[in-house]
């Protein structure tokens, strides 16, 4: 993803989000099980975003309270969200059951990657615990007939923080691409997933629209990762 996207960014061939470009409110809503990065990780990310903002102030940069790692979205954001929220109790039941056996998981945030429409911080985890949890949640959703809005964008199998999206043409694409390249192996700290939250949200996890449905606390010992960044 990085190699193809950075070439497009360097050439100014970015994908501009039409809702952000028009400064319109996002009326799509979805349900997401997510976790917020640690205070240290947020601090490091926001320092990086301030550097990017000095280069390209017209883009959409996430606020500290909007930074999140998606564990899984039981249903992704959609304009037609009422039928999904009418079954909210069943969704909560599925998440409750999936998290019963889950323990804390440690994520290391290291390095920047990008698509043609967004900038992301990469997340690395020690074993397959996070994806096992996602699969367990998918099983609980299927058992309750709740798969209609699940994994409609892509099957989520990685960990990342989306930190910025494009809403205007780049003023200096080459300089911006160079800043991203310099952060390719930058450390953004770690987070232990202990307190996930099930939230109602729009596509951007906007502060104004986010509503917490239920907070959770995971038990057990955190799985640790020893990450060696490669050039």
Task: Draw up the topology in text.
Blueprint: H1 2-10, H2 18-21, E1 29-35, H3 39-55, E2 60-61, E3 69-78, H4 82-85, H5 88-99, E4 105-114, E5 118-125, H6 129-143, E6 159-165, H7 173-182, E7 187-193, E8 197-201, E9 211-215
Antiparallel strand pairs: 1-3, 1-8, 2-6, 4-5, 4-7, 5-6, 8-9
General description of the model:
31% of the residues lie in helices and 26% in strands. With 231 residues, it is of the alpha+beta class. The chain has one domain (2-215): Alpha-Beta Complex (Cyclic Phosphodiesterase, Chain: A), CATH 3.90.1140.10. The strands form 2 sheets. It has a 5-stranded antiparallel beta sheet with strand order 2-6-5-4-7. Helix 5 (88-99) packs across helix 6. It is globular and about 50 Å long.
Shape: globular
User: How many separate structural domains?
Assistant: 1
CATH-level-2 architecture: Alpha-Beta Complex
Number of strands: 9
The level-1 CATH class:
Alpha Beta
In oligomeric terms, what are we looking at? single chain
Annotated CATH topology: Cyclic Phosphodiesterase, Chain: A
Mean pLDDT: 91
Strand order of the biggest β-sheet? 2-6-5-4-7
pLDDT < 50 stretches: 221-231
Taken as a percent bin, the fraction of beta residues is 25-35%
Q: What share of the residues lie within helices? A: 25-40%
């Amino acid at each position: 993803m990085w190699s193809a996207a950075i070439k497009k960014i360097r050439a100014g061939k970015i994908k501009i989000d039409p809702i952000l470009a028009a400064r319109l409110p996002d009326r799509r809503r979805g349900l997401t099980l997510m976790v917020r990065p640690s205070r240290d990780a947020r601090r490091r990310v926001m320092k990086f975003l301030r550097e990017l903002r000095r280069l390209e102030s017209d883009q959409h940069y996430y606020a500290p309270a909007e930074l999140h790692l998606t564990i899984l979205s039981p249903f992704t954001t959609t304009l037609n969200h009422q039928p999904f929220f009418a079954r909210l109790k069943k969704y909560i039941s599925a998440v409750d059951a999936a998290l019963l056996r889950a323990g804390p998981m440690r994520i290391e945030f290291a390095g920047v990657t990008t698509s043609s429409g967004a900038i992301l911080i990469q997340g690395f985890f020690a074993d397959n615990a996070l994806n096992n949890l996602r699969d367990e949640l998918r099983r609980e959703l299927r058992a309750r007939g709740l798969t209609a809005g699940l994994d409609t964008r892509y099957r989520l199998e990685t960990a990342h923080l989306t930190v910025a999206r494009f809403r205007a043409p780049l003023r200096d694409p080459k300089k911006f691409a160079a800043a991203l390249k310099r952060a390719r192996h930058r450390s953004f700290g770690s987070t232990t997933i202990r307190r996930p939250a099930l939230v109602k949200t729009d596509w951007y996890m906007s502060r104004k629209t986010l509503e917490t449905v239920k907070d959770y606390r995971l038990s057990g010992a955190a799985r640790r990762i020893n990450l060696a960044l490669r050039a």
